[in-house]
Design a protein that fits this description.
It is a single chain. With about 140 residues, the chain is of the alpha/beta class. The protein has four helices and five strands, in the order βββαβααβα. A five-stranded mixed beta sheet has the order 3-2-1-4-5. β1 (about 5-10) and β2 (about 15-25) form a beta hairpin. α1 (about 55-70) runs parallel beside α3 (about 90-100). The longest helix is centred in the middle third of the chain and has 16 residues, at about 55-70. It is flat. The model has no long low-confidence stretch (mean pLDDT about 80).
Length: about 140
């Protein structure tokens, strides 16, 4: 299968997830690699001041995304959830990613995060009836 290699990254509250895939014709793709590193960006109680991203966790994210670039990815698509959205020092993470690594991280709203979580559950379970409950923080925009 020939095509662009894309890295998809989620900066979540407990972990950073990476999926590297080669895009095929139409809607096809081949997963080349999947990685997960526990960062605890949203750890409670926080290791540092509440509402701030810890330096060690920020460094782990940078190292992880540098690996994504080395893994043949021509493009990195990254999203962040509540831990980054709510952090008062999120630019200390996002600024260097943008400037040094050329990665523009899209911060999902609380509503988008909840919707994507529900869609992921729905597509991974084969049930006729069900209920999805998001036990996370309040879904704010």
């Amino acid at each position: 299968m020939a095509g662009d290699v894309v890295a998809l990254v989620e900066l979540g509250s407990n972990a950073v997830r990476l999926l590297v895939a080669r895009l095929g014709p139409g809607v096809g793709f081949e997963v080349l690699e999947e990685k997960r590193v526990q960062t605890r960006l949203g750890e409670w109680p926080p290791r540092g001041p509440a509402g701030r991203l810890d330096r060690a966790d920020r460094r782990a994210v940078h190292q992880f995304l540098a690996r994504a670039r080395r893994d043949r990815a021509s493009r990195v698509i990254a999203v962040a959830t509540a831990a980054v959205r709510d952090a008062s020092n999120r630019e200390r993470l996002l600024g260097p990613l943008r400037r040094r690594d050329g990665v523009e991280v899209r911060i999902l709203s609380g509503r988008e995060e909840a919707l994507l979580g529900a869609l992921a559950v729905q597509s991974s379970l084969h049930l006729e009836d069900g209920l999805v409950a998001d036990l996370g923080a309040e879904a704010s925009s």
